[in-house]
């Protein structure tokens, strides 16, 4: 077994204690995409290019950019940075995480099949099952931790395998390498399905799906990459030249382009991703341990955090991931009444959807982020009315624990 760091539970790193898990990550985050010599006036911070169109030297002849839906200097700077952070060669920014998802779906055709995790972001579930299926594309949603079952659902017409790891909100860990291996073996000598891994819950700081064999890595930039709860964007990264070429075409043809100003803000957020993720990890693990063993643990029936030894895929998480983000879920005694009182009693945590910002958020997935998931699916996955999801921010951990403690006291007062 590898040496483990008791602070965060994953394999200890031999580098400086403040070094990033992927070599040079912080340096790349701070500088990549921002070479001052790109522009003749050498700015340290890339400029915000608001122009929607660009002058051509002759009809149909342009330097680099033609029209902002197809490309923009500020967007290119952001995309270059994210491709580097993901360990990829190409990145494609979109106007939201779901826009990135829809861009990938536009690569499919009628009669194709998608094999998807059973536990995914509620918006992904809704889009796949209520919209994508209207266009003659079939979808199976299967528990990705049961590899034999997952493999059995691959078909001759499977064109896309959709992973999300950790999953939302149950924080299951999908074994990306194992799925890549099973797909390669199943389709040896044939056209192989694309494998997409939604990396939003981990961020590129803690996990690189492309290096594990995925065709594409998708992030909702709205979350950790931007990190300031003021931008709605998505991004797809890849090392596959043909996939990149098609995605670039679809960016222009379908049109889910982010604004230049949002790209500027997202790039600014990415500059500090490595710093924020370290504190997210420290805080979320401290809270998870407190929920499991602290003075209010008697009101908690289950704590779900990949960094806890009690997590069923803890050992896999330590190998596949370089650390853990600020996401955790837990189940409290009672039902929706108790959960409502608990959430309304929080003072530092805000009762709100979304995740990955500097601020701490709490929500009830069954009636918020996953309300659109059919009740029978929620029950099967484990999304009950007493399952609470936390996005732990970068505040002082003792203040966050104190806030949770007082909410427990109010909820279960005699």
Describe the structure.
The chain is an alpha/beta fold and 414 residues long. It is built from 13 helices and twelve strands. The chain has helices at residues 25-31, 73-85, 97-105, 122-130, 147-152, 176-186, 241-254, 260-270, 273-293, 314-320, 336-345, 375-381, 397-411; strands spanning 90-94, 113-117, 138-142, 158-164, 194-198, 216-220, 234-238, 300-304, 327-332, 350-351, 361-363, 387-391. The strands form two sheets. It has a seven-stranded mixed beta sheet, sandwiched between helices. Helix 1 (25-31) packs antiparallel against helix 2 and helix 2 packs parallel to helix 8. The N and C termini lie far apart (47 Å). The relative contact order is 0.14. Residues 1-15 have low confidence and may be disordered.
Write the layout of secondary structure elements.
Layout: H1 25-31, H2 73-85, E1 90-94, H3 97-105, E2 113-117, H4 122-130, E3 138-142, H5 147-152, E4 158-164, H6 176-186, E5 194-198, E6 216-220, E7 234-238, H7 241-254, H8 260-270, H9 273-293, E8 300-304, H10 314-320, E9 327-332, H11 336-345, E10 350-351, E11 361-363, H12 375-381, E12 387-391, H13 397-411
Parallel strand pairs: 2-3, 2-4, 4-5, 5-6, 10-11
Antiparallel strand pairs: 1-7, 6-7, 8-9, 9-12, 11-12
Helix pairs in contact: 1-2, 2-8, 11-13
